[in-house]
């Protein structure tokens, strides 16, 4: 009988992690087929609310909560997780998601187990139904984004490397050190994976659900950081590689957006204009963005 692969699930937590109990329960419900869930690690980076208390209220011998009182940023906390990793595979997630079914981990790590050339996999974050105007509008662009994401190399691209759900081989993360000023850890590890000679694979069935920003302020904050990420990547990786990876054929982009416009014209037009503003703003503020970013609090709960 083949030895089961040891897996750690790790999450960096901050204030307002209202969904953390649902997240942990969804992880504990995972079926351990072909692997052993060795540890669920919650690293609190200076939380001042009851996030740690909520996490510790979940009773499991697999759960370990580390409560750091000083906030130093997600990048530094991830480096600590990477350097201390002992299991074969790391599943990295956000605390404001819920694993959609009991085989998310199994599906997400399968390519890593089967192919030694694959060092990193991305799952399939899927937003829940929106309630506010902004949330519904954001979901329209997300639907378009998900469509063209899958059409570029079958999803094996930077657009599916989403920090809400990722998996890595230990041998890869041991070679990665995320810069302290990094504003897009998921994108940085994606480019590091390629730069170090590994392959990346998108796993469509590894679905986690999340909430899109409910307010205009939260969306602008989140989308500006997203738009600034390729600019920051060029400071660490060849510019031609970054440009190649983030390029979307105009015909594909327009066809995806047109479908959403036909279905939801007002929502789609509104978010298109807002996102154009975010792109303009990103070019201006990119140099000021740090790993200690302001959170989009309205994404933290499914309520």
Structural notes for this entry:
This protein has 303 residues and is α/β, with parallel strands linked by helices. The protein has a single domain (5-299), classed as Spore Coat Polysaccharide Biosynthesis Protein SpsA, Chain A. The chain has helices spanning 20-28, 51-56, 74-84, 104-114, 133-151, 170-173, 185-195, 216-233, 239-246, 250-263, 265-285, and strands at 5-13, 35-45, 63-68, 89-93, 97-99, 118-127, 165-169, 199-210. An eight-stranded mixed sheet has the order 3-2-1-4-7-6-8-5, sandwiched between helices. It is globular and about 50 Å long. The relative contact order is 0.15.
Keyphrases for this structure?
single chain; 303 residues; alpha/beta; Spore Coat Polysaccharide Biosynthesis Protein SpsA, Chain A; globular
**What share of residues is helical?**
40-55%
Q: Calculate the terminal CA-CA distance, rounded to whole Å.
A: 45 Å
Let me know the CATH homologous superfamily: Spore Coat Polysaccharide Biosynthesis Protein SpsA, Chain A
- Low-confidence segments, given as residue ranges, are none
The topology string of helices and strands comes to EHEHEHEEHEHEHHEHHHH
Radius of gyration: 18 Å
Tell me the name of the CATH class.
Alpha Beta
Give the name of the CATH architecture: Alpha-Beta Complex
The chain-level structural class is alpha/beta
For the largest beta sheet, what order do the strands appear in spatially? Answer: 3-2-1-4-7-6-8-5
Number of beta strands: 8
Proportion of residues in β-strands: 15-25%
Number of DSSP helices?
Answer: 11
Apparent shape: globular
Largest sheet: 8 strands, mixed
- The third-level CATH topology is Spore Coat Polysaccharide Biosynthesis Protein SpsA, Chain A
């Amino acid at each position: 009988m083949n030895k089961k692969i040891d897996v750690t699930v790790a999450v960096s937590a901050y204030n307002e992690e209202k969904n953390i109990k649902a997240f942990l329960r969804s992880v504990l419900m995972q079926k351990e087929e072909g692997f052993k869930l060795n540890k669920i690690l919650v690293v609190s980076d200076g939380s001042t609310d009851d996030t740690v208390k909520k996490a510790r209220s979940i009773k499991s011998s697999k759960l370990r909560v580390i409560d750091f009182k000083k906030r130093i940023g997600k990048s530094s906390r991830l480096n600590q997780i990477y350097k201390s990793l002992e299991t074969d595979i790391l599943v990295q997630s956000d605390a404001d998601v819920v694993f959609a079914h009991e085989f998310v981990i199994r599906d997400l790590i399968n390519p890593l187990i089967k192919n030694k050339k694959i060092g990193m996999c991305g799952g399939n974050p899927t937003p829940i139904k929106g309630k506010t105007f902004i949330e519904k509008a954001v979901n329209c662009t997300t639907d378009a984004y998900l469509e063209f994401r899958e059409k570029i190399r079958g999803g094996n691209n930077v657009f599916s490397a989403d920090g809400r759900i990722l998996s890595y081989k230990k041998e890869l993360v041991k070679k990665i050190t995320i810069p302290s000023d990094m504003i897009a850890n998921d994108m940085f590890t994606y480019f590091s994976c390629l730069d170090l000679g590994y392959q990346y694979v998108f796993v469509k069935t590894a679905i986690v659900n999340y909430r899109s920003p409910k307010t205009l302020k939260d969306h602008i904050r989140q989308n500006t950081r997203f738009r600034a990420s390729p600019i920051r990547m060029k400071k660490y990786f060849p510019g031609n590689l970054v440009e190649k990876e983030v390029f979307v054929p105009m015909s594909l982009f327009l066809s995806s957006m047109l479908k959403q416009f036909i279905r939801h014209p007002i929502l789609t037009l509104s978010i298109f204009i807002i996102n154009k503003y975010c792109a303009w703003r990103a070019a201006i503020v990119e140099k000021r963005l740090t790993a200690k970013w302001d959170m989009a609090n309205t994404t933290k709960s499914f309520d």
